[in-house]
Amino acid sequence: MVKINIYRSLPLITILLLFISSFVFPLIKKKNIAKLISLLTMGLSTVFSIMTLFYVKMNGEFIFRVGHFDAPWGIELKIGILESVMAILFTLITALIIWYSIYSIDKEIKEKRIPYYYLLINLLIGSLLGIVYSNDLFNCFVFIEISTLTSCGIIVIKDTKDNIKATLKYLILSCLGSGLFLMAIAFIYSITGNLNMDFVHKELIDVFSNYRNTVMISMALFTVGLGVKSAMFPLHTWLPDAHSNAPSTSSAILSALVLKGFVFLLIKVLYRVYGLEIINEFIVMDMLLVLGSLGMLIGSILAIAQDNIKRVIAYSSIAQMGYIFFGIGLGTKYGLTMAFFHILGHAFTKSSLFLSVGSMIEQTGKKKLNDLLGVGKEMPVTLGIFTIGALSMVGIPILPGFISKWYLSLASIDAGKEIFLVVILISSLLNAKYYLPIVVNGFFGEENLKGKVFMAKNKPIKELLPVLILTIGMIFIGLFSKVIIEAIETGLI
Amino acid sequence: MKNLLVLLPILFPFIMALLIPLVKFKTKKKRNILVSSSVILNLLLIFLILYIDGPMKVHLFKLNNFIDIFFKIDKMGILFSILASTLWIFTTFYSMEYMEHEGNEKRFFAFFILTLGITVSIAYAGNLFTLYIFYELLTLATFPLVIHKGSKEALYSGKKYLIYSLGGATLVLFGMILLFSINNDLSFVAKGIISPVASENGRLLMIYLALFIGFGVKAAIIPFHSWLPAAMVAPTPVSSLLHAVAVVKSGIFALIRVSYFIFGVDIIERINGNLYVSVLVVITILLGSLLALHQENLKKRLAYSTVSQLGYILLGLVMLNENAFTGGILHLINHAVIKITLFFCAGAIYIKTGKKNISDIKGIGRKMPTTMVCFGIASISLIGIPPTNGFVSKWYLALGGLGANKILFPIILLVSALLTAGYLIPIIVTAFFPGEGQKQKRDEAPLKMLVPIVILTSIVVILGLFPNPILHFIEGIAAKLI
Asked: Is B36 within the bounds of a domain?
């Protein structure tokens, strides 16, 4: 009687497509074919994710039983609007990044390794989609482990001393994070006997009052474990090294997407496993709020102190993740909506920033801020793209950075926490402090421009096209923020 | 359809600003023709939409109650847009000649016209959010003009300008968010939009002060003024136009919008907002004049004079009565015309002699008599000696001060007028009476610079002799607001 609904299987198909296709890469000797396959599979995944979104929009949230076993025995995928939006975000941005990498990756890693690089990317995105879709805690853990190893892989693939050091640091801290996550699952399993999120939630409501401490410990473990992975302040120490040493395309994926996957999982755990009533019994939300605020401020302050342009952007990621934790920590629906919106906006912005900076480094061979003065004359288009991203970070109206800041402010007023308004505003000023000088010194200044030839190092427009699309996507997110926010709100219920 | 016409004078400069860097001009003359004709055309477009009856409003882009780019034309906006676009034309002709000495004219003119579009948008902004956006854009668009030279000093001043402006804008944003949380609509309506029972006084006061200081940064309120003298490193047309008209006056224009179109007189009086800010304003007037006395650099002296004169305008706004408001707006216009003339003269001197300091220009009156006579007339107007236009606006300001039962204000006006004389008259004296009779040949600035100076001076004189048409127009606005 099983009627196979192809639409319902799409999420699984997407994950499998990415996983299975990745095994092809080691067999391929020619790098161009590897690039093509990678782009094709990722493009196809994007299409599948978009189809999933349309299906969810028409038919509402659905649960897909992997292998037709019913929960709690089988593994479930639970796909709502938010999950499918996240999936589109992951696949679309990765597809664009892969497109960009076609032209640039040869310059960063050895030719022999290029097929492996795409293998890792496909595995990584597949595991991220798994984290997003899965409704099973242990299944999520498995995907987390895959994503940890693959993200280490795309950092170390460049194979320099710094890369190995950064990767080891990342690997150790990341494993610590997954360990804590596993421990939290163990605690939860011991008191509820389930791993399926919905079932755990049902059980927890019954047994919560008997096991207050256990619940609290597990919640703390989840938060810290995922906090390490998503660079929550003060657990961010691995991020600047990892993101600044990796090839630019990897940095873009790591910063724009991988961090977001773990935040999404944290939200899922907090809201789907525990639920608001249980969370509000503990101070987890307040902790998130405070740590988020600290991240917003200190991440930016540390960014100001950097002299390597990729490290500046990496530290800025910590600040931006702070916004997301801030939104979650407000503990209201409004705040959560904005956290989601910021995930979307930041994913586009950060990836275009990393890619544009990547092409500056690639063309000029320089990483230090002081060496990149006057780069706007040599590469006006690239720095122009960077400028738009930077303006969004600073909070120029209509761009998504501004929209998040505005609504986060309103949400904090709404939640009766007005003092945090000041944090948001100060942090946006700090953002201006480190982004604008790059732009200004790039475009202006007699000394800076001396000896530079106009458009001398410009990348051909076809190589910049994916970055341009990312930037346009970012502007669109700002323009259609109303629609997006409404969609998120309906998805949250 | 008719409403969309509002967008013409806003979009046209934006399009031209994009076009100028793209077009390859064969000769400078062709570029100059394009630039000047687009600036003139823009003024004509503004006149065109004035001739169409009916309420003119257009929502360019509406996301929700808040994010709503909304243009509406009212008398206040008309006044400001015509003032700005008229002075823009003079500056265009002046800078054609002047900028040849500075180089990189293409970039200059692109941002120059862009700034015109932004200023007109500020004039026609129909709600606080639109105003805020263009206020931010104004900072970004004028920044390249300020650092045009690209020297270390210019970059340093530019940084200062950015920090001050963005800081101010952040304060504005803070006020705006709080305001939005108590009042879900930020459109400009005469007499204010906040219902009297809306909220507690403390919070309203906080919002008012945040907005006032935030916009006040651009209006160079002391102690937030120091970007203005620093920005004098910019080429003279930029200093004159942006720092006598567009930027600083946009700050003041925004304050008018906030005070009279968002809060309204009643609410401000209830929360005593005017008392707090009037302290700042009085300090601005007096300290600005005093600081001007010390400046050796001619442009810096004029800059501090701007600080002080902007204080006059703000004084007119915070006294919250009809006469004072009329005086304030009249001074806004007069000061714009006068200050631009003074700056143009300073620029002409610099171009001809390369001298910036006042002590170096001894006897310049013999060399450049026309320029210096114009400088003299404008100075006298700024001091406020009848029958010049400066006198008219100060007269109304004094009347307003008396009307508000504050005898202190007219006294401050008098003291400051003396100080104004103190820092302007010595320049004229040095120029015309150098002491030893060095003979210098007559050598005026080129016609493209001299003609705008002379025309502007005659406007100054005409405004002084026949202030009534503008006065009635402003009184009409004032009657609706107070």
From this structure: no
Q: What residues of chain A lie within 8 A of the CB of B144, using their CB? A: 443-444
A398 CA to chain B: closest CA distance, Å?
8
Helix (H) or strand (E) holding A63: strand A62-66
Of the candidates A432, A444, A479, which has its C-beta nearest B155's C-beta?
Answer: A444
Query: Helix, strand or coil for residue B57?
Result: strand
For the packed helices B105-124 and B8-22, what is the interaxial angle rounded to 10 degrees? 170
pLDDT digits 0-9 by tens, A47-71: 999 999 988 888 888 888 887 777 7
> Is B376 part of any domain?
yes
Digit-coded pLDDT (tens) for B332-343: 988 898 888 888
Quickly count helices (H) and strands (E) in chain B. 20, 2
Check if the beta carbon of residue A266 is closer than 8 Å to that of residue A227.
yes
Neighbours of B2 (CB within 10 A): 11
Tokens describing residue B241: 């136009």
Residue B82 contacts residue B29 (beta carbons within 8 Å): no
Q: Which residues of A touch B174 (CB under 8 A)?
A: 421-422, 425
Residue A1 is predicted with a pLDDT of: 44
Whether the per-residue pLDDT at B65 is higher than 70: the answer is: no
A414 to chain B, any CB pair closer than 8 A? The answer is yes
State the residue for tokens 């009809």. Answer: B322
Residues 6+ apart with CB under 8 A from A150: A120, A121, A123, A124, A127
Is A445 an interface residue toward B (CB < 8 Å)? yes
Which of B66, B150, B181 comes nearest A449 by C-beta?
B150
Residue in the structure block whose two tokens are 């079932």: A199
Assign residue A461 a region (left: φ > 0; alpha: ψ between -120 and 50; beta: otherwise): alpha
CA distances from B434 to A35, A141, B359, B443 (A): 79, 87, 10, 17
**B480 within some domain:** yes
Secondary structure of residue B220 in the 3-state scheme: coil
Task: Indicate the residue of B150, B180, B181 with minimum beta-carbon distance to A444.
Answer: B150
pLDDT tens sequence across B424-480: 888 888 888 876 656 667 777 788 888 888 998 998 888 888 888 888 888 888 888
Domain ranges, residue B286: 279-482
The Cα-based distances of B255 to A282, A446, B131, B212, B218 in angstroms read: 46, 36, 11, 6, 10
Tell me which residues of chain B, numbers 140 to 169, contact chain A at a CB-CB cutoff of 8 Å.
Answer: 140, 143-144, 147, 149-152, 155, 158-159, 162, 166-167
Report yes or no on B296 lying in a domain.
yes
Q: Inter-chain contact A445–B150, Cβ cutoff 8 Å?
A: yes
Q: Judge: B177–A413 Cβ closer than 8 Å, yes or no.
A: yes
pLDDT single digits (tens) B192-251 = 777 766 667 788 888 888 999 999 888 888 888 888 888 888 888 888 877 777 888 999
| Cα-trace Rg, chain B | 21
Cβ B385 vs Cβ B464: under 8 Å:
no
- Chain B hits for A428, CB-CB cut-off 8 Å, are 170
| Number of domains chain B contains | 1
pTM: 0.85
**Do A345 and A403 meet the contact criterion of CB atoms below 8 Å apart?**
yes
ipTM for this prediction? 0.76
| One-letter amino acid for residue A93 of the chain | I
The B residues from 368 to 427 touching A (CB cutoff 8 Å) are none
Each residue's pLDDT tens digit, A143-186? 999 999 999 988 888 878 888 998 999 999 999 999 999 999 99
Q: For residues A93 and B54, give the distance between their C-alpha atoms in angstroms, rounded to a whole number.
A: 48
- Find the DSSP H helices in B361-446: 364-367, 369-383, 389-403, 408-432
* CA nearest to B69 within chain A: A398
- The DSSP letter of residue B6 is G
Taking the CA of residue B470 and the nearest CA in chain A, the distance in Å comes to 36
